[in-house]
Amino acid sequence: MRRIVAIQSLKHIAFRIWAAVALSVPLSLWLLSLLDNASGLTTPLLVLAVSFILFFMASGWLATQLALQLIPPVLHEAGVWERNGDPDRAEKAYRKALALYDSFLISPGDRRRGLPSLVSRMVRLYAAQTDKDAVADQFMEHYLTRYPTDQEIAESWLQTREYQGGLTPQHQDLAARIGETHAANMTIQTTLARLYLLAKRTDFPALQTYRRAMASPLSPSSAMAVDLSALFIREGRSDEWALPVYLQAAAQQPSWEELRCGIAACLRWILPSERNADLLARARKILGRL
After folding, report:
1. Distance CA 180, CA 267 (A)
2. Does residue 219 have a pLDDT over 60?
3. Buried b (16+ CB within 10 A) or exposed e, 5-17
4. How far apart are CA 27 and CA 12, in angstroms?
5. Model confidence at 94, in pLDDT bands (50, 70, 90)?
């Protein structure tokens, strides 16, 4: 992304320099011929410098205004195609607008101000598609890397990853960043927890996500508690990360012997405190007399 911005900025500056040179040199020669200057190099250089600066500024402003006038009709066309259910033509129109933003015409400042709105519309076009191709997936990933706070697109991207079989190694950092950004969004947390569980992750970000998801009222009796308990039991986990999960799983499978052993291990190894007193009491109630 930074490389694209740098290239666009260089193209815009190169265009302004070219336009300024192409226009200021003939104008300066014409003005000097009228002045009939005989005072050396001072006047020619001053005339050339002033005309160069004026044309440099004017060419950038005029080119930017021209491009900004071309973009709204293209966006209107894209919106019409999108509402008519033709995403392919809508995407082509959006690509035209994107090409204008990436061209040498628009100044870097106007590009920064106008591009986020266009990219947001494009990514929502891709999010609405049922069968997302590699281009759409890559576009959404780049967008979330730059704008992880977009809650709607983050939910859509994580759900797509779940439908497509889980997170790849390249997706892990982006998924963790989304989870940290939307810690209060339980839809994102539960979807991310299922993805982490699919990958059998028990690192700290995954444990934090499991804790948020299992504490959510959306999933107190979900099958996630059973699957997560199986993962924790296989690792021999008997700590305050595991006990709440074991207790939720025990409500669904009270006769699961390995689970009861896991709860007993938690009673053995967790140090009692005011924070975990309720959990330990529930664990003793489930086990009864050993």
Report:
1. 31
2. no
3. eeebeeebeebbe
4. 22
5. very high
pLDDT of residue 10: 84
Using an 8 Å Cβ cutoff, are 139 and 171 in contact? Answer: no
- pLDDT greater at residue 209 or residue 220: 209
Angle at 179 between CA 173 and CA 181, to 5 degrees: 105
What average pLDDT does this structure show over 191-203? Answer: 91
Give the C-alpha separation, 155 to 161, whole Å: 10
How many residues does the structure list for the chain?
290
> Tell me, what's the pLDDT at 265?
93
Phi, psi of 278 (to 5 degrees): -65, -40
CA distance 266 to 70: 66
pTM for the predicted model, two decimal places? 0.75
The identity of residue 285, as a single letter, is K
8 contacts: CB under 8 Å, gap ≥ 6: 101, 102, 103, 104, 106, 108, 111
- Token code pair at residue 88: 């392919």
Check residues 189 and 217 and name the one with the higher pLDDT.
189
List C-alpha distances in Å: 194 to 167, 172, 225, 238, 245.
Answer: 10, 13, 10, 21, 14
- 3-state secondary structure string, 99-144? HHHHCCCCCHHHHHHHHHHHHHHHHHHHHCCCCCCHHHHHHHHHHH
Which among 176, 181, 240, 253 has a CA at the least distance from the CA of 214?
240
Closest to 240 (Cα-Cα) out of 273, 201, 200: 273
Q: Can you tell me the distance from the alpha carbon of 35 to that of 109, in angstroms, rounded to the nearest whole number?
A: 39
Question: How many whole angstroms separate alpha carbon 29 and alpha carbon 253?
Answer: 92
Amino acid at 47: V
The residue among 50 and 152 whose pLDDT is bigger is 152
